[in-house]
Design brief:
The chain is mainly alpha-helical and about 220 residues long. It contains 9 helices and 2 strands. It is elongated and about 55 Å long.
Length: about 220
């Protein structure tokens, strides 16, 4: 029986997606450092695949701003730029406030308990000065109302934008006063939701995003 003509294409697509998943995770968690060279041949050998899906994955990462290239010279992990955070934070803030307003009427007591548990996980990560766990816990808090918003387009857009932010936040993680401020800001959001006041919760979320950006720009403050 002849092999269907779509089979090789499907296999290459799967390989490309796997490479993309590996590389994006390594870039975001800092395994691959800013400006570290990315050689498609080395990556292909390490992952046991051909160079073609590696190149396709690298192009996709370049489109997302996680990889940068100089034609016929080099491909590397994109530099970290605080200016990118300055551009992204207001956009994410606005979209998250919409997600929270959409989600608030459907949040259950179980959801609210989960929010408190996640904020407690953030506190533990801060006490242990674990940057990765702290950023993951902070992201998980926000993901509760994003996932409950009921709007797949909004969820997908926020997911892409926040992947870029996680990389910056991990690199500039601060477990001191800024981390404690985030805990208090989350608590204010949760308290407003518990009291059935979505407008106050949205304003508390706005304060959280604005405070986070200010702390990122002035880490010693």
């Amino acid at each position: 029986m002849p092999i269907p003509p779509t089979a090789p294409k499907r296999a290459r697509s799967l390989a490309r997606d796997e490479v993309y998943t590996h590389l994006s995770r390594w870039i975001i968690d800092g395994t691959l450092q800013p400006e570290e060279p990315l050689r498609d041949q080395d990556i292909a050998v390490q992952l046991g695949i051909s160079r073609t899906p590696v190149r396709e994955a690298l192009r996709r990462l370049e489109d997302e701003g996680l990889v940068e290239t100089a034609l016929n010279r080099w491909t590397r992990v994109a530099s970290l730029r605080l200016g990118q955070a300055t551009a992204l934070y207001p956009v994410v803030q606005t979209l998250e406030m919409l997600a929270l307003q959409l989600a608030a009427p459907g949040l259950t007591d179980e959801d609210l308990l989960h929010l408190n548990d996640l904020n407690a996980q953030l506190r533990t990560a801060l006490e242990q000065r674990d940057a990765g766990a702290a950023v993951d816990a902070d992201t998980a808090v926000h993901d509760v109302w994003i996932s409950k918003s009921g709007n797949p387009e909004l969820q997908q857009t926020l997911h892409g934008l926040k992947r870029k932010l996680r990389r910056i936040e991990r690199a500039y993680f601060d477990a001191t006063s800024s981390g404690q401020a985030s805990l208090k800001e989350h608590a204010a959001i949760i308290a407003a939701l518990q009291q059935g006041d979505p407008d106050r919760a949205a304003q508390a979320l706005k304060a959280n995003w604005q405070g986070s950006l200010n702390r990122l720009q002035q880490p010693s403050a």
